[in-house]
Amino acid sequence: MPAENKDQENDNTPAAVKPRGCFPRLIVLLLLLFAVGLGFSIHYMAQPQYLGDIQGYAPDSRALLRRDLRMMLQTSLDRSYPVTLTEGEINQWLLGVLKVKQGGLLADRVSLDGVWVRLEDGRAEVVLERKVMGKPFTVSMFVTIEQTESEKGAKTVVQFHGGPYHEYLPFPKCGGRFGKLLVPQGFLLLVMPSFKHLAAMFPEEFRLGFEEMTRIEIHDGRLTLDPRVPTKTVTDTH
Which of 37, 73, 131, 184 has the highest Cβ tally under 10 A? Predict the structure, then answer.
């Protein structure tokens, strides 16, 4: 009888709980970090980037004399001399000739209020300023210029990125900004139709400025276009 009671007690003893492994905890931690990162990303995307540093953006600078960009480029090509455009001059020209209008299904909720160009050393940033349901929103794309020279002449290629995020991280390339958030180049597929439509509005200016010019240099606050072919220097080895 005591033996039977002992066996019953053993049967009623709860089974030992196995310790939880590290893998489920790691999964939970990764999901938590992803959720936090996504929250921060949405927060910065919803905030428009600061545009007050762009020359020509301030209302008191918009009354300056606007130069005829197409005539300047054509004259530069005809007379074979370089021309330098400041960031403010480009934005003043855009402000004068560009009629911004949002089309598509969201036209009644999304407005396109302006297009601005920010020039930095080695790259340009094209910014679309919008209002989404009355709230300001910005999206931008970086542009870099790659030029090569061969026996057939100089070739200019426009790259839609702003270079690598860091010198030790060559990929992915930095594509632009959604709000204040820097995004990789692949994200530009979401907004590329808007930028292509913008470029299609100025075919002659793009031909004169990027196809006909031999050398293009982007510096902080200015763009230099040079139609002159570089001369080869011959050194005497005797």
Answer: 73
